[in-house]
Amino acid sequence: MKFVWHLFLLLINVIASAQTEPYPHCQGTTGFTSATEFRTSVTADVYDITHYHIQLELYDTLLFVQGKVTVTAKPLFASLDSFWLELTSALTVDSIRINGQNRNFNHANDVILVPLPTALPIGQSFSCEVYYRGVPPQQANRRGMMLSNAGIHPALFTHSSLFWAKNWLPVKQQLSDKIDSIDLQITTRLGKKVASHGLLVDIDTLPNQKVRWHWQSRYPIAYYLVALSVSDYVISNRQVLLPGRTSAMPVTDFSFPINGPSAALLDTTPRVLQELSRMWGTYPFADEKYGHAQTNMSGAMEHQTLSGMGFYNLQVIIHEAAHQWFGDYVTCATPSDIWLNEGFATYAEALFVEVFDATAAAAIRNGWINAVRSNAVTGSVYVPAGADFSRVLNTNLSYRKPALVLHNLRWLLGDSLFFGGLQHYLAQRSFGNATTEEFRMLMEQYTGVSLSRFINAWIYGSGFPDYFLSWDQRGNELLISFYDRSDAPLGLFDLPYPITVVFTDGRREPMRLQAGFFQLQTFPIQGTIQTILTDPDQWVLESAFTTTFRDITLAVNETEKPAFMMYPNPASDVLSLRFSVPITYDQSAEVYDMQGKIQLSQKLEAGTIASSLEIYTLAAGLYMLRCGNEVKRLLIQR
Predict the structure, then answer these.
(1) CB contact at 8 A, 594 and 624
(2) 497 three-class SS
(3) Do 550 and 471 contact (CB within 8 A), yes or no?
(4) 3-state secondary structure at position 431
(5) Residue 340's closest CA among 480, 440, 414, 417?
(6) Residue 528, Cβ neighbours under 10 Å: how many?
(7) Which of 54, 272, 343, 637 could be stapled to 570 by a disulfide with Cβ–Cβ 3.0 to 4.6 Å?
(8) Which of 77, 80, 76 lies closest to 120 in space, CA to CA?
(9) Contact at 8 Å (CB) between 189 and 211?
(10) Which residues of 449-474 are buried (b: 16+ CB within 10 A; e: fewer)?
(11) Cα 274 from Cα 539, distance rounded (Å)
């Protein structure tokens, strides 16, 4: 009961911020605009990194890095006659050793190139030791390693994101090559604490008031998730018993002595891990730990097994924990697929809250919907090649919209297939990478449902549907005309859609429609319909609420509704109409704008076979022309 009460208090801030605040999670301040940052890595995938041993001397009051990094690797597809890593040219490389022997090297344009004395054959392991030093660059927040004296406690910490690991670490910046295992031995001033990945091996006291912390992880890790921080931390420990485990896992927090997070907030972390494990499978790094390291960064970052936290609330704790599955365990294959990281982590914020309060979870999703609508978001969730960093981590396109798309997919598949499919996807791509197409294929493989149209519309497509629904009742039959009137390509959003039919006796019956032009859908019913509710639980992201009205002409016998032709189309001043047979009852030809408002109506008497509409008063643009039950698109051009 105590946990639920604390959660209720924390939820107030989550709901309030769901619409108004940008997403600082997993990023810093925005404004990254260099297109060259979104490039193919210079380190072509011709070798595989198997181990990193990072040995550095760092202090929380000095922005300076010095030490050595040993990279163990092996050639993959061909013999290797030279070896290269990326490291900013702002740092000085003192020497390079290959298999213990000093080698000549060239360090220019952020690349270290080391010619080898003899070519290494495929599969032969070798080591490269890089001895280096210097001040990591600090341009426009593209820093990688940062020193902050903000607040009471100074801190030195790393935040590499996708492109800046090279600003402090010799690295192969390629998402497809995860480092199989890692050791970090960080020397600092006695009394200071070092936070990093995995498990703490030992703490060695050294001469001259120094101490060396040794962290070790045996899980594969993407280069940009390698991280550490040094500060005057207070360490707190909790435990969590994860599903399927017989012993508890440590949850360790490194917090500032003053202005640190509340104990009540940190107490939510074990429950978050338990609930996400029930949804997606047991926490993937359960043999090591999870926790948080407080920093002075402007956001937060899902460093593997130890998230870096520039601020704390329930929302960001859930978000970064969710990344341990979506982002760390399975990492997007390219920056174009970043929604596979950020969309899931964002959706998790509502999923966790839904376990305790469905209404509060709906309020969080509504905040996202309102934010996306109010910002008139355009562009695809899938990031175009060549986009800059601010586009890769666009708040609405990479966070909120894909979270809402996943909510729609959940409704489409149902909970059993949706969550089962996600566990299948994670298991199949475990400790590796995934593209959008691999996600689609693996979900289809598990569910047996074709998702090509769904992915094409919501991930590769742009914008949102703007649905229009008219209905009538004919005896024990419900008739519905339902279509998308947005500017999207014809048929893009012709996807399933939920409605609830409310009867006069109080019964409610959920139904599933299929959007599509020129389609009259019929459903058997029992009773008299009072009204129809469109997407009452808000499963589908739309540009606005669906326009709905009762149309008594739908119930007229289909044989009495002759099809019509209109010409020319595009039209300018006059539009001609021609019916296949004379119409048998009085009706109207109605021109609607794309917001569903009637802009022109002309009466057509019974017996009419041809007519014309004077449309010169209408502005150029896209409209819908409706005669009887038939609707066609009309383009006015001048």
Answers:
(1) yes
(2) strand
(3) yes
(4) coil
(5) 440
(6) 9
(7) 637
(8) 80
(9) yes
(10) eebeebbebbbebbbbbbbbbbbbbe
(11) 26
CA end-to-end span of the chain: 67
User: For 342, how many CA atoms within 13 A lie in the half-sphere containing its CB?
Assistant: 29
249-255 sheet: strands from edge to edge: 234-240, 249-255, 290-294, 307-309, 300-301
- The Cα 488–Cα 625 span in angstroms is 17
Which range, of 50-64, 294-308, 424-438, 589-603, averages the lowest pLDDT? 589-603
Q: Which of residues 6 and 585 earns the better pLDDT score?
A: 585
DSSP state of 248: P
β-strands 47-59, 62-75 pairing: antiparallel
Spell out where 38-110 has E strands.
47-59, 62-75, 80-86, 92-98, 101-103, 106-108
AA identity, residue 569: N
456 within 8 A of 379, measured Cβ to Cβ? no
CB 251 within 8 A of CB 237: yes
Q: Which residues contact 376 (CB under 8 A, 6 or more apart)?
A: none
Bond into 568 cis (ω within 30): yes
456: DSSP letter: I
Dist CA 518 CA 20 (whole Å): 40
Tokens of 260: 């640190």
The phi-psi region of residue 473 (left if phi > 0; otherwise alpha if psi is between -120 and 50; otherwise beta) is beta
Element (H, E) at 181: strand 181-189
Which of 445, 549, 551, 536 minimizes the C-alpha distance to 497?
536
pLDDT value at 446 more than 50: yes
What one-letter code names the amino acid at 299?
Answer: G
- For residues 285 and 89, give the distance between their C-alpha atoms in angstroms, rounded to a whole number: 35
> Which region, left, alpha or beta, applies to residue 100 given φ > 0 means left and ψ of -120 to 50 means alpha?
left
Report which residue type is found at 145.
Answer: M
Segment 593-627, tens digit of pLDDT: 877 788 999 999 999 988 999 999 999 988 889 88
What is the rounded distance in angstroms from the CA atom of residue 585 to the CA atom of residue 550?
Answer: 18
Contact between residue 586 and residue 605 where contact means Cβ atoms under 8 Å apart: yes
pLDDT at position 39 is: 35
CA distances from 239 to 252, 267, 268, 270, 375 (A): 8, 10, 11, 7, 42
What dihedral angle (degrees, nearest 10) is formed by the CA atoms of 117, 119, 122, 125? 0
If you write DSSP's letter for every residue of 97-113 in order, what string do you get? EETTEEE--EEETTEEE
Q: Phi and psi dihedrals of 200, rounded to 5? A: -80, 120
398 by DSSP, 3-state: which?
Answer: helix
Contact 305, 324 (CB under 8 A): yes
Pairwise CA distance, residues 541 & 544, whole Å: 9
Quick one: which H or E segment has residue 434?
strand 432-434
Contact 3, 267 (CB under 8 A): yes
Q: Tell me what pLDDT residue 34 has.
A: 35
